[in-house]
Design a protein that fits this description.
alpha+beta; Beta-Lactamase; Helix Hairpins; Heat Shock Protein 90; 5-stranded mixed β-sheet
Length: 372
């Protein structure tokens, strides 16, 4: 008869992270799953403060402090755990006091449940619904707006020819310009309704990113911005539509630069890497090799209050912005079988990640849909 497993073996087999803290907030016990979640080892994690592992001012620290004050357990859902150059983990956290300790000096036990995959699936489903609704809205706008705009433009051109005074001609020209601007916005929005196919060919991801960075560096707003490239050289070429991906990356890089305008400088870090966890799945349900492209700036960050609105057409926080850039970027990433994720504000500013399959679904340009 085999001897019963030790307590350490039992907790290391649990899929949830388990951490025990002393009253001073230092780790006195941690299981293997918690080590993976916090990107540490048991030897490195023991006897360190929790703040060293999760970062100062992290929401988990507030939960621990509250439990130590009122001696009552608490549960909080979907708390992000940031990791450099990787998708942030999303965890549910429960904190309980160690009742064996005296009330005025109690340690606590934390249970961390990884919800990253669930959060990604939820975002993906919501993303599909939004893109489908944008297509319906775009088709309706085109039908109701484009024809009247053509009539307004024609009438303004006739006025421009018939009006003799300079002020009247300038007014007619202004009408024509504004009609063209509105028509351009409608055409841009129509990308959601047309279902255009992808023109896929072998793409060198890093060469494409270099071209994007070179374009952004030439803009006046980027004169005081430092660009840092952290590329994974093992990423091979893969089939994709380079023009659409350049459109996506250019939008994200420009957003990062514009976020640092008030600081009059900063660093935009563009990084690439492979991910082995929470990889993208094809239509057959199988996980595919997945590359992550990250754009990280040193601006004010992105608040949770506006995160979900940023990819909504015509919602913008920029003066003079159309509010279509991120929603169009998300559309083209989705058409590649990928996913675009906006991280909420963190210590170093704003961060947007793009996941793309290295063996993407092939495009059928005749139907404007993707197929395995």
């Amino acid at each position: 008869m085999q001897p019963p497993p030790s307590l350490h073996e039992v907790f290391d087999a649990v899929l949830d992270g388990v951490i025990a803290l002393c009253p001073e907030g230092k780790v006195v016990w941690i299981n293997e799953q918690a080590c993976q979640m916090l990107d540490t080892s048991r030897e490195s994690g023991l006897h360190r403060s929790l703040a060293d592992l999760v970062g100062k001012a992290h929401p988990i620290l507030d939960l621990v402090a509250a439990v130590q004050r009122n001696h009552r357990p608490t549960v909080e859902g979907e708390i992000p755990l940031d990791r450099p150059f990787q998708t942030a983990r999303v965890v549910d956290v429960s904190v309980s006091p160690l009742l064996s300790h005296p009330p005025d000096a109690r340690g606590v036990v934390l249970i961390l449940r990884d919800r990253t995959a669930f959060a990604d699936l939820h975002d993906e489903a919501a993303q599909r619904e939004r893109l489908a609704s944008y297509g319906q809205i775009a088709a309706g706008i085109a039908h109701e707006v484009k024809n009247p705009l053509g009539g307004i433009r024609g009438a303004a051109e006739l006025l421009q020819l018939r009006i003799e005074d300079e002020r009247g001609r300038k007014t007619a020209q202004l009408i024509v310009r504004e009609v063209d601007r509105i028509s351009g916005l409608v055409d841009e929005l129509m990308v959601f309704a047309r279902g255009e196919g992808l023109e896929a060919r072998q793409v060198n991801l890093h060469r494409l990113l270099d071209e994007v960075i070179e374009l952004v560096q030439a803009e006046p707003t980027a004169q005081n911005i430092r660009f840092e490239k952290v590329y994974d050289p093992s990423i091979p070429e893969f089939p994709a539509d380079p023009d659409r991906l350049k459109q996506v990356f250019l939008n994200l890089a420009q957003n990062g630069v514009q976020a640092m305008e008030e600081k009059e400088g900063g660093t935009l870090t563009v990084s690439t890497g492979m991910t082995l966890e929470n990889r993208l799945k094809g239509k057959d349900g199988r996980q595919q090799p997945t590359v992550v492209i990250c754009f990280e700036d040193e601006g004010p960050g992105i608040s949770a209050a506006i995160k979900d609105q940023l990819s909504t057409p015509f919602f913008t926080t920029k003066v003079g912005g159309t509010g279509l850039g991120l929603s169009v970027a998300r559309h083209w990433v989705s058409r590649h079988g990928g996913r675009l994720r906006i991280d909420v504000s963190h210590e170093t500013g704003g961060r947007v990640r793009v996941k793309l399959p290295l063996i993407p679904q092939a495009a059928d340009p005749t139907k404007g849909e993707t197929s395995p």
